[in-house]
Each structure stands twice: as structure tokens, then as C-alpha cells.
């Protein structure tokens, strides 16, 4: 069951328009009209995207026609942001380690040649 849910969430977030809508709702609740203006989507496309995000529990329609992100939606975006930050940090650490290793090798290479002579 978790596998199907994970796939549904991944597919939903893989769509750039849905992801942008979710991020906008993370900032603040929005009406359909505002989301349409912000996203530039046609009514039917926006409606389909909102339905998909609602069906998987990332957003909900609230009073007076406002859409807002759910706790699960917030947690998902925050977890994704943390993952990206940590991944970037790891990548940077790897780049630094590779640069240091290259410097050490460059420094030692002439000394290796001198000891062989």
C-alpha cells in the first residue's frame, strides 16, 4: 500500500504546475481565481491539478473557496527541502575533498619523481 501512495505522490509532484501550486499554497491559502492568475493555467487544467493534489491529501478546499496546504503537504515540502539542502551539502563536501586530494597529489607528484631518480 505504501508503494502505491509513494508513486502517486511522486507522480503528482513530478508535474511542474502541480508543484508550483503546492508551493504557492505553502506560502498562503489561495482562491481558485488567484491560483489561476498565478499559475497561468486554464480553468480545466488548474481544476484537474487541484483535484489530484486534493485526492492524495496534500491540499484541501477550505471555507469560502480557499485552497490550503495540509499538514502532510507542508511536511512533504519541508522534507524535500531538507533533502535537497543536505544533498547539496554532501555534494559540496565531496567537491572539497576531491580538490584537496588533487592538491595533495599535485604536490606529491614532483617529489615521487625526485625520489626515483
TrEMBL record:
Q: Which GO terms describe its molecular function?
A: DNA-binding transcription factor activity
Lineage per the UniProt record? Bacteria, Katanobacteria
The HTH arsR-type domain sits at 1-92
Q: PROSITE patterns recorded for this chain?
A: HTH_ARSR_2 (PS50987)
- The transmembrane segments are none
- Database matches in InterPro entries: HTH_ArsR_DNA-bd_dom, WH-like_DNA-bd_sf, WH_DNA-bd_sf
| Source organism, top-level taxon | Bacteria
Organism from which the protein derives: candidate division WWE3 bacterium
What is this protein called in UniProt? Winged helix-turn-helix transcriptional regulator
